[in-house]
């Protein structure tokens, strides 16, 4: 019995390690390739041992101006998330406290609908208004990614805060908006962190909107990485270094806010 | 009080003066491609600004984005572009038909190959100045040829025999673009050499017997002796293979020579790479020689005089010589005879260019407005042919169907039957 | 008691108003605009003015075999990917649903694919799949198996793309189901054990039925996203070879931003829109009936 148990336990860990390896392997391969020369990458059989080089990173940040794209991605993501909080928090509060189901569904529509069905009209309007390749167009489009996440997560979060808190404040003569501002929001830190982290990551990773609406000036990182492939011949080392550079911030954010991210990703489903 | 008023008037008028002076600063907006020649211009623009006193606001874009941006700006009539780099074969037909190019009546075009100018000029006056030309060549590995005792092929029969002989488990006999739409340009010379055409007098004709035969031949070559997965390869996938020594021959545009021999990328010594003319087909030996990039003045430009000044500078002989020294195959014929330039240019490149300038076909794709869609259609034929090693029983019927579709596209834009 | 101010009286409208207007302006208006364009001949490349042509675009697109293929492909890709992810994801969640050393590290690892930039993921897998230098073929040949062409062949491109999707999104199902399992009450399990049920029986008759609603919700979320998959396909194959991996989303993109056929592109976009709408509604029905 005991022996059987130990065997089962060992088997369990083998399975866990196997799953982890499958998940991790592409990242490891990306990381190791980013330190290889082109010659080492296209060597057959694939080289596991090689002398690492930093030239790919030097190229990515030196020749390719990745820093600019990095800043663009940060600015676009930051503004989109910030503005989404400004208009999303009150909406989430209203949905939670006044059970505005239809509004919730309406905002959720933005999460469900394929981005490309609004992208073409945006593109036409943006070129007419001379908004192509501006932060305005990009931030607005990225807000459509961030806003539903903010509303979705925050309305669930507000649901978990007892109504009595505001009611007692209102009995004491505070206005509802004051109660929201001074009582509810200060208690919502964890929810807001979840919403901000998730919506920032999704904006950071977005490819389609920026591919159409941005050009040289406001190009974001995913486009830069994609262009890196089609720019010259496939320079795998450089591409892998670029991939590391783009994934690192999202992964670091995830590590710091692991609990929040898991919560944000799973909460909608578990709560139903 | 009067004093104050007077001084205010003086102040106001001086402000106005300076405002008009500001409005008079000469400025133009230029769109460049991030092609090596665009980069070269970018670096030289400060010189131009200094000598002309014109301020140049330039943007540098990827080729696809450049076309998209120009098309939407012109089509929605919101453009402030004065000068732009342009790909005549990709967008020239459409831009010209829509009247987006300013005719160039005062420029001298005698320094450019005649076949190239036949495309750059539709009707009366040319609408762009060619900057960069490219033509199809055969790159090959001298060492592998020697080891296998193979001569440089002069005809398609010899090419196939050489590919067969050089093909092994580790080295593909021959490579060329197989990725559908991207392959259409490289296929074109094969079609011409078999005696076919993509479009003749505004009608799609690539279902003709010679054209279909060419597509079969192309598919047989690549399907039997090409690298694995060739149907998803464009030049950017083939070049690393060639540099890694995994391909013995490669037919593609002449522009890649400089990159192929780049010592930082290649595992094969530069001396082992050779360049030759594309072998002759049963009917002709007419590789494409096309203007891959030109430069033009926008019709709606409000600063045409300044725009022309920029155009003349950007297409000058001096900059062309500079381009040659940076491994760019420039359009001007004179720089190909300049001894100083020739010192640093591969003789194989010079010889193949001389041949193509005489015998080349100035088109490498269906010349029409909806060229992207037409390329997708022809690309399907290429893939079908490669997948069946040229044996497909459907190919002729498919070609007929695709010709019908391309003709529909021509009819849609009113180009059907127009020379 | 103070007198309610204007804001307070209308707070139900004022609070959600900016968000409502934003969505209406950026989403509903464009959709209506797209609908209107779908009845016109507008084509940027022709330079001709916009003309009302009724249902002609619809006729042309519906008769286009490429469009029908794209629909079938979109559905195949989505259904295969989501079914594999649901089964695999649930299985992994059930395995991991116990205390063990390194559990929080394992959960962190599971998060990584979810937050990775899809374009970069696609590029990494392209290097894997490269027929000549890729690791995938090296692994196959080391095992003595024939090498494949992966995304380079029309026959294998869709399965190869599904593998990427499964790698990236199975962890999401796992995490959701894990959270669902953590929220279950102990009682039914104890009751089953008292009745002498085997581990398998507990799993089959207690655990899975109890987390089913959570699984279905996870599937809805995945399904909607899978139907809209764009980044990975665009970055890895651009819809090729030929049209072999062209889904509705990619086709719509090409018609709009490569061919500039705005009228016909609108028809494709509307079709995609309704496909997503229908699928979400269908599954929501399924879910509510499973709950009752």
UniProtKB/TrEMBL annotation, chain A:
Gene3D superfamilies: MetI-like. Signal peptide: none annotated. CDD domains: TM_PBP2. It is found in: Cell membrane. Keywords: Cell membrane, Membrane, Transmembrane, Transmembrane helix, Transport. It is a multi-pass membrane protein. The keyword Aminoacyl-tRNA synthetase does not apply. The chain crosses the membrane at residues 12-31, 69-91, 103-124, 136-158, 178-204, 236-257. Coiled coil: none annotated. GO terms for biological process: transmembrane transport. Its main location: membrane. Residues 70-257 form the ABC transmembrane type-1 domain. InterPro entries: BP-dep_ABC_trans_perm, MetI-like, MetI-like_sf. The keyword Transmembrane applies. It holds the Pfam family BPD_transp_1. GO terms for cellular component: plasma membrane. Belongs to the binding-protein-dependent transport system permease family. This is Carbohydrate ABC transporter permease. It comes from Siculibacillus lacustris.
TrEMBL record, chain B:
Belongs to the bacterial solute-binding protein 1 family. Residues 1-23 form the signal peptide. The keyword Signal applies. Keywords: Periplasm, Signal. It comes from Siculibacillus lacustris. It holds the Pfam family SBP_bac_1. The keyword Signal applies. It comes from the Bacteria. It is found in: Periplasm. InterPro entries: Bact_solute-bd_prot1 (IPR050490), SBP (IPR006059). This is Sugar ABC transporter substrate-binding protein. GO terms for cellular component: periplasmic space. PANTHER family: ARABINOSE-BINDING PROTEIN-RELATED, DIACETYLCHITOBIOSE BINDING PROTEIN DASA.
TrEMBL record, chain C:
The chain crosses the membrane at residues 12-36, 75-96, 108-129, 149-181, 202-224, 265-284. CDD domains: TM_PBP2. Gene3D superfamilies: MetI-like. Keywords: Membrane, Transmembrane, Transmembrane helix, Transport. One of its GO terms (cellular component) is plasma membrane. It holds the Pfam family BPD_transp_1. InterPro entries: MetI-like, MetI-like_sf, Sugar_ABC_transporter. Residues 71-281 form the ABC transmembrane type-1 domain. SUPFAM superfamilies: MalF N-terminal region-like, MetI-like. It comes from the Bacteria. It is a multi-pass membrane protein. GO terms for biological process: transmembrane transport. It is found in: Cell membrane. PANTHER family: GLUCOSE IMPORT SYSTEM PERMEASE PROTEIN GLCT (PTHR43759:SF1), TREHALOSE TRANSPORT SYSTEM PERMEASE PROTEIN SUGA (PTHR43759). Belongs to the binding-protein-dependent transport system permease family. This is Sugar ABC transporter permease. It comes from Siculibacillus lacustris.
């Amino acid at each position: 019995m005991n022996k059987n148990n130990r065997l089962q336990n060992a088997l369990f860990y083998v399975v866990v390690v196997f799953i982890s390896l499958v998940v991790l392997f592409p990242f490891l391969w990306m990381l190791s390739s980013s330190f290889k020369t082109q010659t080492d990458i296209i060597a057959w059989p694939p080289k596991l041992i090689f002398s690492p080089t930093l030239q790919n990173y030097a190229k990515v940040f030196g020749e390719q101006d990745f820093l600019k794209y990095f800043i663009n991605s940060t600015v676009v993501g930051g503004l989109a998330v910030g503005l989404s909080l400004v208009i999303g928090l009150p909406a989430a509060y209203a949905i939670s406290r006044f059970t505005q189901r239809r509004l919730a569904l309406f905002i959720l529509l933005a999460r469900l609908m394929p981005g490309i069905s609004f992208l073409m009209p945006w593109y036409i309007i943006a070129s007419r208004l001379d908004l192509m390749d501006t932060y305005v167009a990009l931030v607005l489009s990225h807000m459509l990614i961030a806003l539903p996440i903010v509303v979705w997560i925050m309305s669930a979060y507000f649901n978990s805060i007892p109504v009595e808190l505001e009611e007692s404040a209102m009995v004491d003569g505070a206005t509802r908006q004051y109660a929201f501002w001074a009582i509810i929001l200060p208690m919502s830190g964890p929810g807001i962190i979840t919403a901000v982290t998730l919506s920032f990551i999704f904006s950071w990773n977005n490819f389609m909107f920026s591919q159409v609406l941005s050009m040289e000036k406001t190009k974001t990182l995913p486009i830069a990485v994609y262009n890196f492939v089609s720019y010259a011949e496939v320079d795998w080392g450089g591409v892998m270094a670029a991939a590391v550079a783009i994934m690192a911030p999202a992964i670091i954010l995830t590590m710091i806010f692991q609990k929040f991210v898991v919560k944000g990703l799973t909460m909608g489903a578990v709560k139903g | 009080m009067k004093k104050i008023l007077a001084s205010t008037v003086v102040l106001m008028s001086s402000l106005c003066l300076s405002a008009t002076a500001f409005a008079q600063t000469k400025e133009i907006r230029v769109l460049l491609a991030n092609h090596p020649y665009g980069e070269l211009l970018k670096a030289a623009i400060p010189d131009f600004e200094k000598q002309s006193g014109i301020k140049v606001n330039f943007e540098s874009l990827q080729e696809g984005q450049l076309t998209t941006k120009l098309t939407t700006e012109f089509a929605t009539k919101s453009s402030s572009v004065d000068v732009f780099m342009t790909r005549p074969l990709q967008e020239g037909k459409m831009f010209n038909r829509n009247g987006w190019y300013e005719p160039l009546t005062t420029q001298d075009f005698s320094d450019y190959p005649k076949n190239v100018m036949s495309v750059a000029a539709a009707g009366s006056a040319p609408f762009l100045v060619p900057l960069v030309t490219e033509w199809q060549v055969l790159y090959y590995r001298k060492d592998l040829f020697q080891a296998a005792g193979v001569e440089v092929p002069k005809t398609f029969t010899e090419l196939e025999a050489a590919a067969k002989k050089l093909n092994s488990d580790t080295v593909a006999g021959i490579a060329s673009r197989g990725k559908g739409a991207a392959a259409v340009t490289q296929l074109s010379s094969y079609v011409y050499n078999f005696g076919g055409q993509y479009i003749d007098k505004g009608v799609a004709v690539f279902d003709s017997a010679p054209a279909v035969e060419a597509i079969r031949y192309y598919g047989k070559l690549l399907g039997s002796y090409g690298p694995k997965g060739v149907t998803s390869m464009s030049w950017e996938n083939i070049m690393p293979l060639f540099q890694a020594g995994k391909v013995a021959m490669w037919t593609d545009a002449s522009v890649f020579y400089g990159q192929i021999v780049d010592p930082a990328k290649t595992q094969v010594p530069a001396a082992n790479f050779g360049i030759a003319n594309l072998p002759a087909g049963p009917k002709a030996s007419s590789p494409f020689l096309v203007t891959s990039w030109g430069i033009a003045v926008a019709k709606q430009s409000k600063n045409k005089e300044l725009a022309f000044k920029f155009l003349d500078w950007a297409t000058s002989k001096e900059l062309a010589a500079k381009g040659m020294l940076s491994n760019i195959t420039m359009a001007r014929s004179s720089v190909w005879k300049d001894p100083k330039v020739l010192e640093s240019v591969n003789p194989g490149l010079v010889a193949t260019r001389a041949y193509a300038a005489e015998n080349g076909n100035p088109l490498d794709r269906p010349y029409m407005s909806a060229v992207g869609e037409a390329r997708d259609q022809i690309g399907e034929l290429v893939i079908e042919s490669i997948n069946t090693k040229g044996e497909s029983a459907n190919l002729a019927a498919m070609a007929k169907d695709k010709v019908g579709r391309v003709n529909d596209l021509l009819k849609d834009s009113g180009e059907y039957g127009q020379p | 008691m103070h007198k309610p101010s204007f804001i307070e009286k209308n707070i139900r409208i004022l609070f959600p108003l900016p968000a409502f207007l934003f969505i209406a302006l950026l989403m509903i208006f464009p959709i209506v605009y797209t609908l209107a364009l779908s009845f016109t001949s507008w084509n940027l490349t022709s330079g001709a003015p916009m003309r009302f042509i009724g249902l002609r675009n619809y006729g042309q697109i519906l008769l286009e075999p490429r469009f029908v293929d794209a629909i079938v492909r979109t559905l195949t890709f989505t259904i295969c990917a989501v079914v594999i992810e649901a089964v695999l994801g649930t299985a992994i969640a059930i395995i991991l649903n116990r205390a063990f050393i390194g559990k929080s590290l394992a959960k962190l690892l599971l998060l990584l694919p979810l937050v990775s930039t899809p374009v970069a993921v696609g590029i990494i897998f392209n290097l894997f799949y490269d027929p000549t230098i890729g690791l995938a073929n090296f692994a196959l040949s080391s095992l003595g198996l024939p090498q494949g062409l992966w995304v380079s062949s029309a026959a294998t491109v869709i399965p190869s793309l599904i593998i990427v999707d499964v790698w990236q999104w199975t962890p999401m199902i796992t995490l959701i189901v894990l959270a669902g399992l953590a929220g279950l009450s102990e009682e039914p399990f104890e009751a089953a054990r008292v009745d002498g049920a085997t581990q398998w029986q507990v799993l089959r008759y207690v655990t899975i039925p109890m987390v089913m609603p959570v699984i279905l919700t996870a599937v809805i979320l995945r399904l909607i996203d899978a139907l809209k998959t764009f980044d990975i396909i665009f970055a890895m194959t651009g819809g090729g070879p030929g049209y072999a991996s062209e889904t509705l989303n990619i086709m719509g993109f090409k018609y709009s931003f490569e061919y500039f056929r705005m009228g016909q592109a609108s028809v494709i976009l509307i079709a995609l829109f309704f496909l997503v709408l229908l699928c979400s509604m269908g599954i929501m029905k399924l879910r509510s009936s499973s709950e009752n």
